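Predict structure. Chain length: 829.
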Amino acid sequence: MTQLADDFGAFIGSRDEDEGLFSRDISGQLVRLDAPTVSDYEKQVNVQIDGQPVTVPLAEPLKDAQGNVVLDIDGRTTPRYTTIYDAATKLYGDKQGEAAKIPIPVLCHQPHMQPVAVCRMCVVQIYGQKRGKRSPERKLLPACQHQVKDGMEVFTMNAEGADGDRVRKAVNVMTELLTADHLKDAPAPAPAAELAPFNELKQIADHCGLKESRFSLDVLQTPKVAPSPTGRRGLDGTSPVFMVDHSACILCERCMRACDEVKKNNVIGRTGKGRTAGISFDLNDPMGESSCVQCGECMVSCPTSAITFKPVAKVKVKSGQRDAKPVPAAELIQDPLFAEVPPKFLLWQEGLVTRTNVRPGDVLCKQGDPGNTAFVVKEGEVEITAAGEKGKAPKPFKLKHALTDPEPLILGEMACLSGTPRNADVRAASAGEIWEVRRNVLDRIMRSPRQRARFEKIYRERALDVVLRNGELFEGLPEEEYKKCVDFLRPNLNFVRVNPGQLMFRQGDWADAMYLVRLGHVNIAINRYGSEATIIHRGPGAVIGEIGLLAIEADDMPKGAEAIDKLMASAFASSPDDLGMAIPSGQRTATCSALDHLELARVDRAAFLKMVRDFPAVRRRLIDLSIRRLRGDTTPGDGSAAIRRDYVEQGLYQGQSLLVMDLKKCTHCDECVRACVQQHGNESHGVPVTRLIRDGLRFENYLVAASCRSCKDAYCMIGCPVDAIHRGKHQQIVIEDHCIGCGLCATNCPFGNINMPENELRQLEVPDPNQPAKTIRIAQRKASTCDLCDAEGHRDTPLPRCVHACPHDAAHRMTGEELLAEVTSNIRV
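Prediction complete.
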């Protein structure tokens, strides 16, 4: 008991008025801690951790869960103080082997989360300056939250001597307290044996050398848990995907921050007080009855067995012509590429990484195929054939990778991340081993700062080639001048991502950059003479903002493109050293904002002026483009302005396969709906389910039915927790059988074209809400949407039964551009 009391005393420490909003300066006087500023990025702080020096900035920009720097609406960063844990990460993070393990245990903290310091596992002994003398802090402080200061000395549980002993005793006691009540196996049907090695509480206990907890004896009694709903719940198996064991919860709040900060779902919070405190879903509802979207972020973040997964759905490997097999999670965990992916995620998503032993000539993908996966060449050689110059045969090139190579060879990541079609043919040039990685796993890999930097570099280089080759800027340009201009632009371009609805610039602003659209669509609103704005849109490959940079106005149109080009060439010749004076900055002629997720290549004004000076063909191309757009924007209306506005507002520009019904021919016979039900039968859900509803918005004399549009930017594919939704051969949306029925895709679809019927082919046992001791069987939900009647991709051209069955030639499948052209042509006639 004496040793226990001594250890407990070391754990609780003593009062210290230095913690909180105040600290002491070098003279020992209390001072208020101010918020960090951008200038703190440049201030370097020298710290010692266990006698090893490390230099870190006083503050760093706040980052999100994906490693992106968080920017406010004005593009400014948010400074946050560098913590002791950040400094330890820098000190130990670059070392290999056992030394790479940071000697500061954490349970409540994750690098991508805001620190809250509730578990107190990361406590360290700090020495600083008080009243001009080296002095220790009177109590141990959390490394995850405490900021660094110049000259600070930190001692962790790995330190030798009295300081290390104090930290070790505190961590040991805290670990014993938690393991006494909360160290448990995962409840069935979760795979307890597979999850056990990754229980972080057990890992810390093993590191401390604890065999059993002294607090599990009669020294302290486990308090009785209040019955629901006033406090914690017991075992919660109401979710079709996850198990929640509240008795294993240590209240670290990682699940709460994962749900709120990372995923922005705001479902999980705290409930109760004192010994009845616990996590809750919504208003302390069972997980399965709450608004939880089953994304799994809470389960992956949980450091104990409080939230685990049920093995309810297995991914079916579609091998095609190749012999693909799932890579076991145990093997992925040992692979360096997946080293920083949470093991619980790899266990849950087992089957989303497959291994293929290829032979020479085996095709991995073809140009135009849906980009649902990335390829990791573990061993062997591949041949890549990308699109070449017009009128010329493309030139293939080869890449080789060996097992001994330090860096992995990754292909197809650009299409996988962006959801766009493949832009090259890839085939095996030798026998070897290829791993195919689905988007969910690739996203998790990219949360690692080290891996993200590598992927970003590859992505930016390859995306730049695509945006320049396929854009309208270089259309018709001689190949020699194209290559020279690309070499000039490569170091002068940077990629910018814009969220839906975010403003790019306003009409009347001074032009400061030109943009090339890589992905997404831009909404362009043009206001003339105070009238209602004309709405148009432009998509991938478009040039945005060139009119303002060239300072061309409507009054310049009568001069003609040739005359304007000569005037600009003369201005450049007369002011070779001051291009800004040669062509003064013009004003924006429209207000541009993002219609969906935009990815843009940005060229600032200085680089733009050099480009149009040094490359006359590009300058003439931009002048022609500007004049054509100014004439089109100011031409008197023919009735199409309102149509174009409806076209944009209804999101028809997104559609790659709209189900359009000519209301002049349609007799409302519903043969299209019946044909859809007959085509799919009971195969997917065990009962007949329709993929279309003969209702929707009208666009002039056409009805756009409620059926999947195969959107260019498919919101439905964002965030699927098990990657069960992807594009098919014809860019249609396909739902796979391992769908868990979370409904996130249906929620994300802005057009209501995904339904969530019950899947009678998959029955689950859940607790009976009326008789908790018994269970009942219910059908798990499964998403359903139109797949153009060719989910497997057997046809070269899709043949939707809804169109084929229409007896009056009223139903058609067409793109948004085709529908707009059809409607506007009828108006002109």
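Summary: The first strand starts at residue 22 and ends at 24.
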